[in-house]
Amino acid sequence: MTPHPVHTSDLTVCAVLPAGVTLDDQTRQPDATVFVAPGRAGLGEAVRAAAGRATWLWLVDAHATPARDALAELLAPLTDAAPLADPVLISSKVVTRDGRLDDVAPPWPRLLAREQAIAGAERRLAALRAARYGSLLVHRRAVERHGVPRPDFAGAGDDLEWTARVLRDEPGFLAPRSVAVRTGGGRPDAAAFVRNRVRILRGDGWRGQEKAWFAFLFAQDLSRELSARPAAAPAVVRAIGRGLRGRA
User: Is the pLDDT score of 112 beyond 70?
Assistant: First the structure.
């Protein structure tokens, strides 16, 4: 991955926002804004529209509040003296109100790409294999090559499914100096969570070795879910079956 200069014209940003959300306090304002319409397909339609208006898409979740310099810090790795080698995605660090790393949607680090990990570490960034909604800066080529987040995963893993495909063969990073605070929301329905994790495991977003790692983390998450909601166990078992039988 050899860094190349990033031209100012390549740094146009279109924010993809929930209806009613504004970013007026940002130190670096987005160049355009698209609002997400209600419905399962609303996000995908907004992402597609934004990709036609700017080079970079800034996806801000309805339950996350970016710090005033969040966008500026997402763009900083692209304009440093030693810029990153053409990343396709850069994520903010999402924290809770008390400053802890958000455990509802934590980042998924990349473990099997030594050069990318080193390139990120040199810039105090973490290499990502998948990312969760909160505050994501995504290059429009992700949409051109992989489409938009799938509406059939909406609300229970569409971020994980989409970014896993986007980052399968291209680099992405976590920029910890860019921060967003999780201000609400909750965990998805347990059955939907399980069904869609099984579908992701069956899909093409993860390679062989990575699937084993994904399955291990899925098992850990499932154990936590069932410990917190033991009454959901019968629905979870049925969801596993639906995930195995349904469309990946």
Answer: no
Give per-residue pLDDT as tens, 189-225: 778 888 998 999 999 998 888 888 888 888 887 787 7
Amino acid at 198: V
Distance CA(181)–CA(205), nearest Å, equals 28
Q: Amino acid letter at 132?
A: R
- In the block, residue with structure tokens 């473990």: 111
Which of 130, 154, 182 is the last residue in one of the domains? 182
Same domain, 30 and 143: yes
At position 19, the amino acid (one-letter code) is A
Do the Cβ atoms of 109 and 147 come closer than 8 Å?
no
Beta bridge partners of 128: 109
Element (H, E) at 94: strand 89-95
Please give the residue range of the domain that contains residue 84. Answer: 8-182
Distance in Å from the first CA to the final CA of the chain: 32
Number of domains the chain is built from:
2
